[in-house]
């Protein structure tokens, strides 16, 4: 079954929580019909009802499922590749290759597969936008971040390459690279559910970024005139001057 809408359509992956959910809300408020894609169907259904969007359970690492997902849409104007994350914080010396592989799968191959599947529709739209949520980890290394840093460097490389390859197509390629963002799940996933270690990431930091802060930048970039391509936007909280230079009051 195909879906047909009058309003421009924005697909958001990883839309069940955090930056993805905030972005879905922001794009809906900006007039987009939002297609919410993520693995957790119950959360998607609730958000879809809230914003008048469409819930589509999807694992972006499942190539066949991604292709079926793409075939079910007959219009796509915006794709926000937000699904991603960190798994594990071990040093390179002891990191679990399974964690590294899983991070590459979701942060790089997930972006690749969804973008490949939706690119024909984005081109046909005549004014498509691909947004990729990378990370400041795509530009700097830090201890214990190896697998995530490697994957996000891959996310950045994919995005930069895609922009070059689409130079003569009516599709913008926007990269948003957030630094420290406090969401419910990012650090919890990184530390395999250890709430104390997850909370320590933000301890004493005056106002880490919120999911809404990042979503604001995505909506801003998407709603610029079609000829304006925000190539790369790095945003951090004021308290984080660089990856390691974080002001903590306790
Ligand atoms: C999240 C930013 O500093 O945890 O993408 O790598 S960081």
UniProtKB/TrEMBL annotation:
The keyword Oxidoreductase appears for this protein: yes
The record ties this protein, via Gene3D superfamilies, to: NAD(P)-binding Rossmann-like Domain (3.40.50.720)
Which PROSITE patterns does the UniProt record give? ADH_SHORT (PS00061)
Q: Which InterPro entries does this one have?
A: NAD(P)-bd_dom_sf (IPR036291), Sc_DH/Rdtase_CS (IPR020904), SDR_fam (IPR002347)
Q: Which UniProt keywords apply?
A: Oxidoreductase
Q: Does the keyword Oxidoreductase apply?
A: yes
Coiled-coil annotated residue ranges, if any = none
An MF annotation (GO) of this entry: oxidoreductase activity, acting on the CH-OH group of donors, NAD or NADP as acceptor
Q: What family does this chain come from, according to its entry?
A: Belongs to the short-chain dehydrogenases/reductases (SDR) family.
Please give the name of this protein. Oxidoreductase
* Species assigned in the record: Nakamurella endophytica
